[in-house]
Amino acid sequence: MPKHQIDPNNWIGLYSDYLFNFTISRVNDRDLAKDLVQDTFFAGLKSMKNFKGEASERTWLISILKRKIIDHYRKINSNKGKAEVRMSYNSDSDSEGDWLEERIADPYDKTAEDTLENEELGYAIYNCLSKLPKKQAEVFRMKTIEGLDTETICNELDITASNLWVIIHRARTAMASCMEKNWF
Amino acid sequence: MSKGNSILTACEKANHVCDKIQYKEASFVEKIKLNFHLLICRACRKYTSKNQKLTKVVKDSKVECLNCSEKEALDITLSVAIKEQQN
Question: A130-182, what's its fold?
Answer without folding.
Answer: Arc Repressor Mutant, subunit A (1.10.10)
